[in-house]
# Entry
Amino acid sequence: MSIEFTDLPYPKDALEPLVSARTLEFHYGKHHKAYVDKLNAAIDGTDYDSLTLEEIVRRSLAEAKGAIFNNAAQVWNHEFLWHSMSPSATEPSAALAAAIESAFGGMDGFREAFKAASLGQFGSGWAWLVADGDNLEIRTSGNADTPLTDDVVPLLTLDVWEHAYYLDFQNERNRYIDAFLDTLINWDFAASNFAAEKQAA
Ligand code: FE
# Structure
């Protein structure tokens, strides 16, 4: 069984002009696809190849199989990223808005904290909104690391590797983060992850 190169949830030009079709041709079509291809080559003929993607991420971390972990986590992170952005405007659900209020003092506080974290991530990595029970937190991870392997539930992510924004914003990571927070962020996806987490808790 091989890991699938999943479809984007929208056409490549759907996030224009903030994330261009050309960025998605490279970021999705080349980078994400390369992680899938390298993962499948690495697990072929091993006992990893009967596992789900999430199982591969967790087990390769536990077993310190770096090449498998890096590619598997990047596949998982990128699938999660595409869903963390939406071509249409979204709003947090009432439950999520209440949790944001209690964790960050409201949307402005969330925005400020998420921006500071994602700007402050040195080099390649990710910024995350995660839920730990009812409590929300912002975390960052370097390279392929993912909060999927921590005891928290990821709600949203932003890729801050340069390959995510260089064609559209060059070195100006701050403008890319603003585009995400002001326009692209998919609160429907975050709310459904939060609701599923509360149901499972
Ligand atoms: Fe990326």
User: Anything to note?
Assistant: Strands lie at 125-132, 135-142, 153-159. Residues 21-43 form the longest helix (23 residues).
